[in-house]
Design brief:
The protein has 149 residues and is mainly α. It has one domain: Interleukin-15/Interleukin-21 (Growth Hormone, Chain: A). It is built from seven helices and two strands. α2 runs antiparallel to α7 and α5 packs antiparallel against α6. It is globular, with a radius of gyration of 18 Å. Keywords: Signal. InterPro entries: 4_helix_cytokine-like_core (IPR009079). This is Interleukin.
Amino acid sequence: MLRGRLALAGLHLCLACVLVLASQSKLCSRDVFIIVEKLLKCDQNSTCSGCRLYTPSIDDYKRCPRSTMLCFANESKVLIKEWDNYCGPRLDKKLGQLAQCFKQPESLCRPCELQNEETAGKFLADLLVTLQMIKSQNCTRPFKSPEHK
C-alpha cells in the first residue's frame, strides 16, 4: 500500500511540474514582444490618430497582474479594430492567454475603464514595459529584442 501512495504522490508532483512549466512558457513567449515591437515601429499616430486607450500602469500590474493584462487584451482588441489595414496576429488573444497565468482577487483591482486614456503609442510602450517586467520576474533567460541581436 505504501508503494501505491508513493507512486501517486510522484504522479501529482510530475503533474504540478508540467503545469508550472506550461504557464511559465506562456509567460516567457517572445511572440507577444515581437507583435508589440512591430506595432510600435509603425506610425500608430497617423494610423490610429484618434485612438485613446485605457492604459494600466506598472503599479496596476504589481497590484493586479491578471486584471491589468486583461485590460491590455481588451484595449488591444479596440486598437486593432481601429488600425487601418491591420492583418497581423491577434494580440488580444495572446494577452488574454497570458492573463490566465496569474491568480488574484478581483475585488482589489480597478476596472479597466478607470485607467488613464492614452494614445496608441503610449499604450503600446506601457504594454511593452509591463511585458518586460513579466519576463524579468518569471523567465530564466532575459529577452533580447530582435533589433539587439
